[in-house]
């Protein structure tokens, strides 16, 4: 019996390694495919359907999104997006210090890349395990995708309202126009809702969006002439 038990552990470990290798290859291929192909559905979108919130989305290419919208999303969510490797370590450090002092008011510091990793490959939540996976997928998409593709994916899969996903669906639902024709004001309003679009609504205008709107506009003004930002705005 001792001999059988002794041999069982190496066999079990070999099987686990095979499973891990297969899983790595599968998700690597999926990440590679998504460099050019839009995801059929995400866990967050599936959850919206299951809850009965519906699913409105319409993936569009980056060149079919108004420069105003691209600028607004970066100004609202990640002003250092063109320059970092997926992680804004300075902001993460500040958020950790803040959360230690204010345990009841958790502040995040996720970059656009991290949010794409979460929205495309994972589920919503704050567990350590999910955060670890988010870190891994963030590293992978920064390695395999371009900044343009990451921004394009972010603007297509982000929840922008109850059952609404992406900038195109938001523009059509809220302003009855395509994302390509969004004005500076309209783009900023949509971007303001991103932290929690079900609570921070554009129609009707929530207090949070109304207050954050001016900060986002200032951020857009400050970022607009940055050469690295301009490269993302002028994609065609």
Description:
- Strand 2 (159-161) and strand 3 form a beta hairpin.
- This protein starts with a helix and ends with a helix.
- It has 236 residues and is mainly α.
- It is built from eleven helices and three strands.
- The protein is globular.
Q: Ends: how far apart? A: 68 Å
Largest sheet: 3 strands, mixed
Number of domains: 1
Alpha-carbon Rg, integer: 20 Å
Number of helices: 11
Question: Secondary-structure map with pairings?
Answer:
Elements: H1 2-33, H2 43-51, E1 56-57, H3 67-77, H4 89-101, H5 112-121, H6 128-144, H7 147-157, E2 159-161, E3 164-165, H8 167-175, H9 184-192, H10 207-223, H11 227-233
Parallel strand pairs: 1-3
Antiparallel strand pairs: 2-3
Helix pairs in contact: 3-9, 3-10, 5-6, 5-7, 9-10
Which descriptors apply to this entry?
single chain, mainly alpha, Penicillin binding protein transpeptidase fold, 3-stranded mixed sheet
In short:
It contains eleven helices and three strands, in the order H-H-E-H-H-H-H-H-E-E-H-H-H-H.
């Amino acid at each position: 019996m001792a001999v059988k038990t002794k041999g069982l552990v190496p066999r079990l470990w070999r099987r686990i390694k095979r499973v891990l290798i297969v899983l790595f290859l599968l998700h690597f291929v999926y990440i590679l495919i998504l460099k050019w192909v839009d995801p059929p559905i995400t866990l967050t979108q599936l959850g919206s359907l299951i809850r009965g919130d519906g699913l409105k989305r319409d993936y569009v290419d980056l060149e079919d999104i108004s420069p105003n919208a691209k600028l607004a999303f970066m100004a609202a969510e990640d002003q250092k997006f063109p320059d970092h490797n997926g992680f804004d370590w300075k902001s993460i450090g500040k958020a950790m210090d803040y959360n230690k002092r204010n345990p009841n008011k958790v502040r995040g510091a996720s970059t656009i890349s991290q949010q794409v990793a979460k929205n495309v490959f994972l589920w919503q939540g704050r567990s350590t395990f999910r955060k670890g996976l988010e870190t891994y997928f963030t590293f992978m998409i920064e390695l395999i995708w371009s900044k343009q593709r990451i921004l394009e994916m972010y603007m297509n899969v982000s929840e922008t309202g109850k059952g609404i996903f992406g900038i195109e669906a938001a523009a059509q639902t809220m302003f009855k126009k395509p994302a390509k024709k969004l004005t500076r004001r309209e783009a900023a309003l949509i971007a303001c809702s991103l932290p929690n679009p079900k609570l921070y609504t554009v129609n009707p205008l929530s207090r949070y969006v109304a207050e954050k709107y001016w900060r986002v506009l200032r951020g857009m003004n400050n970022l607009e002439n940055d050469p690295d930002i301009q490269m993302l705005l002028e994609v065609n």
